[in-house]
Amino acid sequence: MNPLSPRKMKTTETVCRYYTVDRSQIQRIVNVPNDRVMRDILQQLFQAGLINKTRMQAVSPGMGSAAPVYFPTRKGAELVAAEFGDERYLYVCTRTPDWMHLLHWIGVAEFHLRLDQALEFCNNVECLGWFGEWDEVNPHGTTPQERFRIYTLITEKPRLVCAPDAVFALRVDGVHSKMFFLELDRGTSSLQQIVKSKFPGFAALAERRLHRRLFDTSAELFTVLHISMSAARRDHLRKIAIGHPAAELHRFACMDDWTPEGALTNAIFYGCDDDTPQAIVRVPKEVAV
Asked: Domain count of the chain?
């Protein structure tokens, strides 16, 4: 196979990095202004077996129209790992995403994409790593807790698990670091269902310090970030969460407020019963760029 052009390599790396992405999301990262050129690049990479795409259709959050969803192949992931000297790409998920949850995973990719862009605005904040729900630690594992990196089986009987959408860690000024779990709320589950199914797992994870296996951070505990599609949904969810196990670990924001320019430094996250929003990290204004 001939060496890939820089744009094709960047496209392949983008698909591997974000797992499920549509053309509009890829185009923003690769910076290809012409839609037709971007489609040609994607088709060539698909024909070469370096990326894959679903046969089902999803609605692009950026365009509001039906669009194919692209995801990695093992061949493409291995090429990217060799090109960038980063073996973490060898463990990216290459399974076909469930068509019923495509919108959800495109939303997770959008959150991740904006996080990466937000980091460019803060010189003294770095990301120590990102793991998605389907990132594998042992591809040959026979159970979810053996196979997937961030799936945690806490107790077998009664069965209690913690399976967030993603986890990442940030470090400020090269010293203070903290872990953040992501729960993306697209409004497809009831508010009571979200709280009852998610909060006990995070509470047990914190109590037993099982999250420490993912990142070694200076902060002993973590924060769970709930991202909703509207401010009204955000506020309803946080009020229902009051009084549930370890509710103090949870913060709530609206996706519209999670922007590259202010995601990290703007006060957009609310506690369950606190009407004063806070920023995800406290960065002095003079070091924000």
From this structure: 2
Q: Chain-centre distance of CA 127, in angstroms?
A: 12
- Contacts of residue 67, defined as CB under 8 A and 6 or more positions apart, other chains included, come to 22, 23, 24, 57, 58, 59, 60
Please give the pLDDT value at position 165. 96
What Rg do the C-alpha atoms of the chain give, in angstroms?
Answer: 19
Average pLDDT, the chain: 91
N-terminal to C-terminal alpha carbon distance within the chain:
42
Could you read off the pLDDT of 183-205 as tens digits, one per residue?
Answer: 999 988 899 999 999 999 999 99
Longest alpha-carbon distance in the chain: 59
| Interval 231-285: pLDDT, tens | 999 999 999 999 998 999 999 999 999 999 999 999 999 999 888 999 998 755 5
| Distinct helix (H) and strand (E) counts, the chain | 8, 11
Domain boundary among 66, 95, 124: 95
Give me the domain span that covers residue 181: 105-287
Q: Is the same domain home to 214 and 162?
A: yes
Can you name the residues that pair with 72 across neighbouring β-strands?
Answer: 51
Q: Is 190 left (phi over 0), alpha (psi -120 to 50) or beta?
A: beta
Q: What is the pTM of this model?
A: 0.91
Q: Mention every residue, 6+ apart, whose C-beta is less than 8 A from residue 211.
A: 167, 179, 181, 205, 222
Together in a domain, 59 and 178? no
Q: In whole angstroms, what is the distance from residue 39 CA to residue 240 CA? A: 44
187: left (phi over 0), alpha (psi -120 to 50) or beta: left
Same domain, 62 and 175: no
